[in-house]
Specification:
- The complex is a heterodimer of chains A (598) and B (271).
- Chain A is α/β, with parallel strands linked by helices and 598 residues long.
- Chain A is 39% helix and 22% strand.
- Chain A has three domains: 245 residues, 3-Layer(aba) Sandwich (Rossmann fold), CATH 3.40.50.300; 66 residues, no CATH class; 250 residues, Rossmann fold.
- In chain A, the strands form four sheets. In chain A, strands 6-7-8-3-9-10 form a six-stranded mixed sheet, with helices on both faces. In chain A, strands 16-17-18-13-19-20 form a six-stranded mixed sheet, with helices on both faces.
- In chain A, α3 packs parallel to α5, α5 packs parallel to α6 and α14 packs across α15.
- By secondary structure, chain B is mostly helical.
- Chain B has two domains: 161 residues, no CATH class; 108 residues, no CATH class.
- Chain B has a two-stranded antiparallel ribbon with strand order 1-2.
- The chains are: A alpha/beta (598), B mainly alpha (271).
- Chains A and B meet through α2, α3, α4, α13 and α14 of A and α8 and α10 of B.
Chain lengths: 598, 271
C-alpha cells in the first residue's frame, strides 16, 4: 500500500433544509480507487467542479468519505484517534494565499503547526529555520505577510506545512491566484521539495505547463478518474483532454495538429526540443526554400506598416503625461505610473500586459476616473475628464471597467436585479434597466432560466459572466477587463474570451484586456501595451512586440511558445515567417514549408 | 497605502519599555489607571505626572506621538470638564446667568481633565511599546485564571490575533469593492442619510460574503495544520519574565504605595 490509498471512495455534498430533510445530493467524488506511492510527484488535473478539490480534502481528513475508505500511511482517515497523525503526515496548501496564513509575522506563521503539535520551543525554532530555508524565504522571516507577493505568501504556506515534517504535501490549486512569476516560484519550490527532501507531492491544478515535470498525471472529470499515466501518455490524448474542458501546451498542440495532418510525429511531445528533433530533419530535406527568405521579410514589414500608421482615427481615450505617485510627501513616495502617453482609437482590441505591480491596474482605474492622476491628463473623446464640469458618472457608463474576480461584487437577490444595478444608477426606469440587463445577459450567454436565480448559487464561471453582464448593461463604448479569466479552467477561459471577442467584432466595442497570458493576448489583440515599473515600455502590434521576446524576458514576461518555436526554426536556417504567433498559423506555415499544403 | 495601517500604532524603537514582558506592561497600565482614580489632591497628581513623564522618556517614543492619541477624546474631555464646572455645588466664584461656577467645580473639573488625559497617555505608552501580538499573548497569560470560571481565554486571544491579521486585508477589500461598484455607477458620497445607508448595501453584502468565505477558508487551513484549541499547545515565543520585569514591578509597587499614602493621608498633613 502506498502513502495515500483510496478505495471505492464516494463523497456527496448534501444540502438539507431547516428541518434536516435532504434537499439535494451532489456527488462530487464517484467511486475512486487510487494508490499514490511515497516519493511520487502526482498532478491531478480537472476542470472547475470536476471534484479534484474535494478529493484533495479527503486526503487529510478535512472531509470524510460518504462511502469507501482513504488510508494515509495505513491509517484510516475516519479513525478519530489517528486524525492528528493523518494531518501531520499529509500537509495541505490551499488556493487563496491570504486565507491560510494565521500569523502576523512570517516566522510565527511557520511556527503555528509545530505549536499545535506541542513541539518544544527550541525544536520549533529549528524547524522554522529549516522550513524557511527550504522555500528560500529566510530573508523575509520578520516581515508581515501582508507585505509579501502572492508567490511569496504561498511559499510561506508551504514552509508552514513543512515545519510539521509531513511525508506528503497536497496542494489544492496553489497557483490559481498567482501571476506567472509567482507560479514559477511555487512550482520550483515544490519540485525541489520532491527531489531533495523526497516529499510526496500531490499537485492539483488546471495549468498544463505545471504538470509536465510530474511523475504521474491523473485527470478527473465528473468525480471520476478518467486518465492516469505519465505526462507523455496523458498529453498524447489531446482531443480527449479537450473534451474534459482542458488544454495542452502550445507545443504539444502543434505537434498533435501536425500529426493529424499526416506528418510522422510521436505522441505526446512536451518540449520545444523534442518538437525540433522531430521536425528539423524533415524540414532540412524539404529545403532549400528559394525566394522564401525575402518574401517572408517583406510580407512582415507590410503588415506592421498597415497596423502601425494611425489614419485619421476616432480617438476614444487619450492619456497625456500621466503620472501617479503613491504616498506623496512621505518617505514611501513611489511612482505607480510615470509619464504614460497613448491614444486608443474606437474599435481597437488592446492587450495590456505587465507583471504584478507594473502599474497596469492603476492605469485602468485612472481611465475610469476612480483614481485621480498626480500629474497629466486623460481625455475621453477629446473632453478633459478632470475638468470642473465633467460628469464622472457618465464616463463610468461609457468606459466599463470589469475588475479582477468581478463575481466578488455581486450582491442582489437574483441575477437580473444584480445586472440592473448599473443601468438603474444611470437613472433608467425599471423597464429600461431590465431590458438592458436581459440583453447584456444574452450577450454573455445566460438565458432566461438564470434571471431569478441567486447569483451566489451559480458556478464560478457563470458568476463571472453575470458580473461582466453587470458592466455590459451600462452599454459601454469601451470595455476594460482586468484578468477576466483568472481562476477559470481552460474551457471557461476560452468561453469568456470568445464572448469578449464577439462583442468586439459585432458591437464594435473598444476592448482593453489586461492579462498575464501572452497566448491569450496574441490570439485576440490588435495592439499590445507593455507596462513595467509604472512606465509604458512597448506599444505596438503583437507581432512586433513578440519579436522583442528577449527584452520581454528581462522584465519578467515572455512571448507565446509559438514565437520561440519559430525562432528556433530560423536559428536552424529554416526561413519561417517571423510574424506567426498562433498554433493554426504555425501549422499552416510548417505544412507549406514541407510542401504538404492542405 | 492601506496595507501599512497597523492597529494599536506600535512605535518600533528598542527601549527598556519595549523589552519588558507584556504582562508587566499590562499590570503597570492597570496600576497607573487605578492610581489616577484614588488620587484626589494636587500633590498626588504631581507624583503621577512625574511618574508618567519619566515612563514616556524611557519609552523613547516622541511626545507628539503620544499627544496624537488625545485628539480622539477632545470632545469627551470638553463635555466632562464643562459638566464638572457648572454642576458642582459650593462656593460661587462667579455666575453667568443661571450658570454658577464654583471653587469646588473648578477643582473637580481640573482633576477630571487630568485623569482623562493621563488615562489616554498611560494606555498609549503600552500600545506604542508593545506589538499587537505580544499584547494578545500578554492578555492570554494574564487572564489565564479566567479559564477556571469557563472563559475561553485562549480562543479569545486567538480571535484577537486573527482579527489583527485580517483587518488590513478587509480594508483593502472594502476599497476594491467600493471602486468596483463605483465603476457600475454607484454613488457613495451624495444623498441624505437614508440614501447613503441604502447605497452601502452593494458594499456591505459583498464584504460580508467575502469575510465569511475567508473565515471558512481560514478555519479549514487551521484545522489542516492540526489546530485544536489551546490544549497541549506549545509556544514558539513563550513570554519571559526577567530581571527588568521584577525591577519594574517593584517600582510600580513603590509608586502605588506613595499614591495610596497620599490618599489615606495618615498623618493628616494639609494637602
Amino acid at each position: 500500500m502506498g502513502i495515500i490509498k483510496a478505495s471505492k471512495l464516494i463523497f456527496d455534498y448534501v444540502t438539507k433544509d431547516e428541518e434536516e430533510h435532504v434537499e439535494d445530493v451532489n456527488r462530487a467524488i464517484d467511486d475512486i480507487d487510487l494508490d499514490i506511492k511515497a516519493g511520487e510527484f502526482v498532478a491531478i488535473l480537472g476542470h472547475n467542479g470536476s471534484g479534484k478539490s474535494t478529493f484533495a480534502k479527503t486526503m487529510n481528513g478535512i472531509l470524510l468519505p460518504t462511502e469507501g475508505t482513504v488510508w494515509i500511511s495505513g491509517m484510516k482517515t475516519t479513525d478519530d484517534e489517528s486524525l492528528w497523525d493523518v494531518r501531520r503526515t499529509v500537509g495541505m496548501v490551499f488556493q487563496n494565499p491570504d486565507n491560510q496564513i494565521i500569523g502576523n509575522v512570517v516566522e510565527e506563521d511557520v511556527g503555528f503547526g509545530p505549536e499545535n503539535l506541542g513541539v518544544p520551543t527550541e525544536e520549533i525554532w529549528k524547524r522554522v529555520d529549516e522550513s524557511l530555508r527550504a522555500v528560500e524565504m529566510t530573508a523575509y522571516r520578520l516581515k508581515s505577510p501582508n507585505r509579501l507577493s502572492g508567490g511569496q505568501k504561498q511559499r510561506v504556506a508551504i514552509a508552514g506545512v513543512m515545519a510539521m515534517k509531513p511525508k506528503c504535501i497536497v496542494l489544492d490549486e496553489p497557483t490559481a491566484m498567482l501571476d506567472p512569476n509567482g507560479r514559477r516560484e511555487v512550482i520550483k519550490t515544490i519540485t525541489e521539495l520532491n527531489r531533495k527532501e523526497h516529499i510526496t507531492v500531490v499537485l492539483i491544478t488546471h495549468y498544463m505547463e505545471e504538470v509536465i515535470n510530474a511523475d504521474r498525471v491523473i485527470v478527473m472529470d465528473d468525480g471520476k478518474v478518467v486518465m492516469d499515466g505519465t505526462p507523455r501518455q496523458v498529453f498524447s490524448r489531446v482531443s480527449d483532454l479537450k473534451s474534459y474542458r482542458l488544454d495542452v501546451p502550445q507545443v504539444t498542440e502543434l505537434a498533435y495538429e501536425l500529426k493529424c495532418a499526416g506528418l510522422n510525429m510521436p505522441d505526446g511531445i512536451l518540449s520545444i526540443d523534442e518538437l525540433m528533433n522531430n521536425l528539423l530533419p524533415a524540414l532540412k530535406n524539404a529545403g532549400p526554400f528559394p525566394g522564401r527568405e525575402h518574401a517572408a521579410e517583406t510580407a512582415g514589414e507590410e503588415k506592421t506598416e498597415n497596423a502601425g500608421t494611425p489614419e485619421k482615427q476616432d480617438i476614444v481615450l487619450k492619456a497625456e503625461h500621466l503620472s501617479y505617485i503613491y504616498g506623496q510627501g512621505t518617505a514611501f513616495e513611489q511612482y505607480a505610473l510615470k509619464d504614460v502617453n497613448f491614444e486608443i482609437p474606437a474599435g481597437q482590441f488592446v492587450g495590456l500586459i505587465g507583471h504584478t505591480g507594473s502599474g497596469k491596474s492603476t492605469l485602468i482605474q485612472h481611465l475610469d476616473g476612480l483614481i485621480r492622476a498626480t500629474e497629466g491628463k486623460i481625455y475621453y473623446r477629446g473632453a478633459d475628464i478632470y475638468a470642473q464640469d465633467f460628469d464622472m458618472r457618465a464616463l463610468r457608463a461609457k468606459v466599463g471597467l470589469v475588475f479582477q474576480y468581478p463575481e466578488h461584487q455581486l450582491f442582489e437577490v437574483d441575477v437580473l436585479s444584480d445586472v440592473c444595478f448599473g443601468p438603474k444608477n444611470l437613472g433608467l426606469s425599471k423597464e429600461e434597466a431590465e431590458a438592458r440587463a436581459k440583453e447584456a445577459l444574452s450577450m454573455v450567454g445566460l438565458d432566461e432560466s438564470f434571471y431569478r436565480q441567486s447569483p451566489f448559487e451559480l458556478s464560478g464561471g457563470q458568476k463571472r459572466r453575470v458580473a461582466i453582464a453587470g458592466v455590459l448593461a451600462m452599454e459601454p463604448e469601451v470595455l476594460i477587463l482586468d484578468e477576466p479569466t483568472a481562476g477559470l479552467d481552460p474551457r471557461g477561459r476560452d468561453e469568456i474570451l470568445d464572448r469578449v471577442n464577439t462583442l468586439h467584432e459585432e458591437k464594435h466595442i473598444t476592448v482593453i484586456l489586461v492579462s498575464h497570458s501572452m497566448e491569450d493576448i496574441a490570439k485576440y489583440a490588435d495592439r499590445i501595451m507593455v507596462m513595467n515599473s509604472g512606465e509604458k515600455v512597448f506599444d505596438d502590434t503583437p507581432k512586433k512586440i513578440f519579436s522583442h521576446y528577449r527584452e520581454l524576458e528581462k522584465i519578467g514576461l515572455s512571448a507565446p511558445q509559438i514565437t520561440y518555436i519559430i525562432q528556433r526554426l530560423k536559428e536552424n536556417g529554416i526561413p519561417a515567417d517571423a510574424d506567426i504567433t498562433t498554433v493554426p498559423e504555425a501549422k499552416d506555415e510548417l505544412l507549406k514549408l514541407l510542401g504538404k499544403e492542405s | 497605502m492601506l496595507r501599512d495601517i497597523t492597529l494599536g500604532q506600535y512605535y518600533p524603537v528598542n527601549s527598556i519599555l519595549h523589552r519588558l514582558d507584556p504582562r508587566t506592561k499590562l499590570f503597570g497600565t492597570l496600576v497607573f489607571i487605578v492610581s489616577l482614580f484614588v488620587s484626589s489632591s494636587w500633590p498626588a497628581y504631581a507624583v503621577a505626572t512625574v511618574f508618567l513623564f519619566a515612563v514616556i522618556r524611557l519609552s523613547l517614543v516622541p511626545v507628539k506621538f503620544m499627544v496624537r492619541g488625545l485628539k480622539a477624546i477632545v470632545f469627551l474631555l470638553l463635555i466632562s470638564v464643562a459638566f464638572n464646572i457648572f454642576l458642582t455645588e459650593g462656593t460661587v466664584v462667579f455666575q453667568i446667568g443661571f450658570l454658577k461656577v464654583t471653587r469646588e467645580g473648578l477643582r473637580l473639573a481640573a482633576f477630571m481633565g487630568i485623569r482623562l488625559i493621563y488615562l489616554v497617555l498611560g494606555s498609549s505608552v503600552m500600545t506604542l511599546t508593545t506589538t499587537p501580538n505580544a499584547l494578545t499573548d500578554g492578555l492570554e497569560e494574564s487572564l489565564g485564571f479566567l479559564n477556571h470560571i469557563g472563559v475561553p481565554v485562549h480562543e479569545i486571544a486567538m480571535m484577537m490575533s486573527i482579527a489583527l491579521r485580517f483587518i488590513p486585508i478587509l480594508i483593502e477589500e472594502t476599497d476594491k469593492i467600493m471602486k468596483a461598484q463605483m465603476a457600475r455607477g454607484a454613488n457613495f458620497e451624495s444623498g441624505n442619510l437614508i440614501e447613503k445607508a441604502k447605497a452601502m448595501v452593494p458594499l456591505l453584502v459583498p464584504l460580508f460574503i467575502s469575510a465569511f468565505r475567508r473565515a471558512t477558508d481560514l478555519a479549514m487551513a487551521m484545522e489542516a495544520r492540526c489546530y485544536h484549541g489551546g490544549e497541549g499547545r506549545t509556544k514558539m515565543k513563550p513570554l519571559q519574565y526577567g530581571r527588568a520585569d521584577r525591577i519594574a514591578t517593584v517600582v510600580l509597587y513603590v509608586y502605588f504605595g506613595i499614591m495610596l499614602l497620599l490618599r489615606i493621608n495618615p498623618l493628616h498633613v494639609k494637602l
